[in-house]
Amino acid sequence: xxxxxxxxxxxxxxxxxxxxxxxxxxxxxPQEVTLIVVTKTFPADxxxxxxxxxxxxxxxxxxxxxAAKAAALNDxxxxxxxxxxxxxxxxxxxxxxxxxxxxSVDSTRLADALGTxxxxxxxxxxxxxxxxxxxxxxxxxxxxxxxxDGVAQVAERIAGTPGLRLAGVMAVAPHGVDPRPGFxxxxxxxxxxxxxxxDAGWISAGMSGxxxxxxxxxxxxxxxxxxxxxxxxxxx
Length: 236
Ligand SMILES: *Cc1c(COP(=O)(O)O)cnc(C)c1O
Known about the structure:
- This protein is α/β, with parallel strands linked by helices.
- The chain contains nine helices and eight strands.
- It has helices at 3-25, 44-52, 63-72, 92-98, 108-120, 151-159, 180-196, 211-216, 226-229; strands at 34-38, 57-60, 80-83, 101-105, 127-132, 164-170, 202-204, 221-224.
- It has an eight-stranded parallel beta sheet.
- The two termini are 29 Å apart.
- The chain binds pyridoxal-5'-phosphate.
- Pyridoxal-5'-phosphate (PLP) is lined by residues 38, 40, 61, 84-85, 172, 207-209, 223-227.
């Protein structure tokens, strides 16, 4: 095993241990939690190492970088690529070519663009889409998610678009404050969504620094970067 693979294996073990302990503390089954390893800014070789270690779900936040990595690793058909970053409508077609899910759908316009995109590329499965929810009531519109009272409208549009599947909700906890009130709000938004859409059960929340709190409030999908890959190299 190369030193880098050994490092990734050790970090993965540590994160899986954190997940197991956090689940145990609140009586949840860790098997129901999906760990998405966020590989943005790290090379395709790291994704290959992670796949060798049993990782199936990886997260990327920039279309160009992710498309190149997915193309370089097209011999790994089991890897599921999750688009977790802000997405411009003009990238929808490219994203539909590599992503199995988009966590950052924050407008009906983007849902429409993804709906058009999936009809134009070859895909074997529907594109899982999550409504990104803003956990910051002060956030200006169009920055990092829709306010809770706007979720239903975006969700309806996704659910009504052929080729898209409404999977659930996603959020990033506001920076530098206790993440728990936000995660609790996200869980309520999810409960409300599931009254209309019982299959939209994903709650994508929790990163390297707050995965325990997210699991306490029902996260089903964690997006963990640094705790597995180490410090991110600075953006070029
Ligand atoms: C980078 C990123 C993550 C991972 O963050 P870490 O702190 O490195 O675990 C999770 N979610 C989103 C949306 C990100 O952009």
